[in-house]
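pinned: reference chain
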Amino acid sequence: MLPEWKKILIVKLRAIGDVILTTPVFRNLREQFPDAQIDFVVEKPAYPLIQTDKNLNRVFIAPSGKNRTVSRERKFFKEIRREKYDVCIDLFGNPRSALITLFSGAKLRVGYYFRGRKYAYQEKFSSRVSEVHEVEFNLDALRHFNIPIRFKQPEIHINEVDLAAAHSIFEKLYTDDFPVAALNPAGSWPAKKWPLPRFAQLAKMLHEEFHFRFVVLWGPGELAEAQLLAEKIGPVAAVHPETTLSQQAALLALCQLFIGNDTGPMHIAAAVGISTIGLYGPTNARLQSPYGEKARAVFNPDIPCLGCDCLTCPLMDCMNYLTPETVFAAAKDLLEENRRLN
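pinned: its structure tokens
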């Protein structure tokens, strides 16, 4: 028997990619409970991508870091408890999200069997975090209650203001109508990064074959690296000006192709529906690849330690032995396949 929830709270605190891979949960809940109040708890960095989600009624920002003061914490919990939710579902499963769930005041608290955190939940179910893609892992919470899964594609809802800002940026960067590919050389782990000379070689191949122009993405602390890659590529590459995260999503929506390391922007690109190539080494592509028909994960399967989850590595074989020719072939196949789909 399906539940009859009228007020639902979902908790997924971070990171950007993980939050994006949670969005199919929102849409399936909205499909099943069209009149319900569906709210979400997230930390501030990912908030700009979720605040416009049409399947949500409200997004709470959980205090974190220096903003997690006693007064803000009290206000945060007071606002949540005031809503008197029928159910709170913790899709993050760390001590902080378990605490939020425990003190949410929801009639039913739901979460995974994660070590000591299960104390916070009344309804618990097994985690498949090391077995299936994160989209499926998130949707397991709905399957537990026999809620039909009709949608699996992550999505980002871009507003008109951000789209107008992106168009304005592109008009200043490019004076022709050639297609634009986004490159992301950054990575939250040093071991995730494909070498910049490889990116530059790949860009040359893509420009010669498809006449691509390139926009190099960057976020806080990444500008110098982006500028260096643009210099290596030459005049067909540009670095975008400083943007908000939601404006960067709008920029990606105007591109025809994304190629980059396993990062938040990679998941943003897949979610806005452009052809997306994710480059993988220390992280497991089977579990965390860009999701959807227009997305592919590329890696060197001959590396024995692939998917090691190491933050740093003295050898970096998984990324160093991933050749531009391999990535180019994958991009070419994906572009041709997506043209047929369109």
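why pinned: The chain has a mean pLDDT of 94. Residues 160-341 form a domain with the Rossmann fold fold (CATH 3.40.50.2000).
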